[in-house]
């Protein structure tokens, strides 16, 4: 029960509430937006590395109705971050085709692919070298960051051309 409460407070109190509030008020808009659009990746990293605490809150293979609700609430939060990205670029008078392409890139690279891709790539990496098991959280985090950096590069330099 303590782990469940701790997981709930961490996911909903800190990851989905406190950190976005802090970033919105104290960081650049692009940092806030990047975090907000990728909260699902943060939850995915925690669920992979600490499944006994966080898997019930973020699990694409949910087994319970509360798990279904939690997974979808986190996913919708990340999707709303993607939509906010589109609205932001609309306000900057960026070409609508470029905005649509950037939204599609975000949806694929940091929404659809990481959900199953991060656990798969983590397992693949750990299966190739069992000695890496003690670095699982670092490996998972590096894989997650690679999705975010890839998204940023594609949107900024290939689609929006923001030099």
Count the beta strands.
0
Low-pLDDT residue intervals, each spanning 5 or more residues = none
State the secondary-structure class.
mainly alpha
* C-alpha termini separation: 50 Å
List the topology elements.
Blueprint: H1 2-26, H2 29-37, H3 39-49, H4 51-54, H5 65-91, H6 96-128, H7 136-159
Helix pairs in contact: 1-2, 2-5, 3-6, 3-7, 5-6, 6-7
Describe the overall structure:
Helix 3 (39-49) runs parallel beside helix 6 (96-128) and helix 3 runs antiparallel to helix 7. 82% of the residues lie in helices and 0% in strands. The chain is globular and about 50 Å long. By secondary structure, the chain is mainly α. The mean pLDDT is 90. The chain is built from seven helices and no strands. The protein has one domain (2-159). It has helices at residues 2-26, 29-37, 39-49, 51-54, 65-91, 96-128, 136-159. 29% of the residues are buried.
What's this entry about, in short?
The chain is an all-alpha fold and about 160 residues long.
Describe the structure using short key phrases.
mainly alpha, 82% helix, 163 residues, single chain
